Amino acid sequence: MVLVSNSSKIAVAGLRSTRLSVRSETSGPGARADVGRARSFLALRARMLSSPSLAGALQFMQVTTRPWEPHELTAWLHEHVVAPGWMKAPRAVREPGADVVALCGIEDRRREVAALAERARRRVALALLDFVAPNPEGGFLRAALYSARVRWSVAVDRAGWLPAPRESDFLSDVVLSLFAAEILSGAELYRSHMTVCAACGRVAFAQEARPRGAGCPRCDGEIKGQAL
Ligand SMILES: [Zn+2]
Q: Which superkingdom heads the taxonomic lineage of this protein's source (predicted)?
């Protein structure tokens, strides 16, 4: 089975129904703020739809909400990390506190793959929770820069950050390099609209400020984010 690359659809699910506020900018500060949020959300949506690295990162967070099968891990690595040319195929997958799983013979390591993916997901979610916190430490963006898991690329038509993970990196750091490459190019935009569930790590993007106290649609956990 090949994973369907539908994370862009996932990421913007529910966004298509959003409408730009048509209230006049002369209607007051509240209306101006609404228009500002709607505009920045449209800018964010355009970025998200054209970012293969974000698509891979969001798909990881989407599919690892259940135990990951070995063939799903190898398919994800190939489609979202190796095929775009960001990293060579690793011989093994690593995560702190989990058994190292060699890709050769991975089909027999179902339990270990599920445990490793779960740990990676938790570590990624913690990094994203820090990113959307009121006083973020900025850990994962700084770590991606200092350890060169992202690189600046200048092409004919555009310049920007690209993921540059290494085969020996932890799986969570590979995923975070995909997030970092996209977020570094528009951190304020992401910080304004990204929300993360403190319980399950679900990542979502909100145009409107959600009512405070509204729970995660997946697990009813507490939603964190500056969009709230
Ligand atoms: Zn949740």
A: Bacteria
Cα of 64 from ligand 1 centre, angstroms: 13
Distance of CA 168 from the midpoint of ligand 1 (Å): 30
Q: What is the DSSP letter of 28?
A: -
Say whether the ipTM exceeds 0.95.
Answer: yes
Assess if residue 37 is contained within a domain. yes
* 2 in a structural domain: no
Q: What separation in Å is there between the alpha carbon of 216 and the centre of ligand 1? A: 5
pLDDT tens digits for range 118-172: 999 999 999 999 999 988 887 899 999 999 999 999 876 778 899 999 999 999 9
Indicate the SS3 state at residue 161.
Answer: strand
Burial of 166 (0-12, 13-18, 19+ CB in 10 A): middle
- The tens digit of pLDDT for each residue in 73-84 reads 999 999 999 999
Distance between Cα 103 and ligand 1 center (Å): 30
CA 126 – ligand 1 centroid, Å: 13
Is 70 a member of any domain? yes
Which residues constitute the domain of residue 154? 7-16+27-224
What is the whole-number distance in angstroms between the Cα of residue 203 and the centre of ligand 1?
9
How far apart CA 81 and CA 103 sit, in angstroms, is: 15
Question: What percentage of the chain has pLDDT greater than the value 90?
Answer: 62
Compute the distance from residue 39 Cα to the ligand 1 centre, in Å: 27
